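Our preliminary data section would be incomplete without showing what the modeling component actually yields. Below, a chain of 185 amino acids is followed by its predicted structure, encoded as tokens that our downstream tools consume directly.
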Amino acid sequence: MIEKVRFDKCCLCISLQFGAYVAAIWFAIWNFYIGGLVIKNKDKPRSVNAYEGSAGIIIGVFYISLGFAALCGIHGIYYKKAGEVKVLTKFAFISLLVYVLFSIIEIILLLNVVGYQKYCRSLNPKHPSYYEYCYPFARWGITFAVGVIFGGYLSIVLRSYSKKLKEQTPNVFVADMTAIMTNTS
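Predicted structure:
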């Protein structure tokens, strides 16, 4: 079903190429930022960062590699190379799936932190409902939903642009084989 979703314009009024640029730049910035943040916080306590030690390094490097894939996609968008844009599209969907998976893992790990609610209450004891906003669902649930919707939309924009480029680019191999077949007969 989602394979059939396709846009002619980004945000109903922006050219698909410019929308693909914005999506690729966003994926590059987002993945470099998250990768750097995870690596930077790998030694923090679990109440701040769910990924400790070598897991933090591995996950951080993974996100940074997705950032470099986005940079390659920017190159493909600029030079209108359908293959590079298709690779970026696949990485964008993988990035989205990884974001969902890691977010769920992070929420599960942070739910297990002993004294987490008590910590939240201690941040502002004068405001009785403040600690309710510190629950992991409230803290990450909205961000998670917005991230999935935004990332999904940008991934579809990239895929739409990739398909548009593929339609505009003739299949050179088939054209050459057709020419060879007609010349030999």
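The longest strand covers residues 9-10. The beta strands are 9-10, 14-15. Preliminary results of this kind motivate Aim 1 of the renewal.
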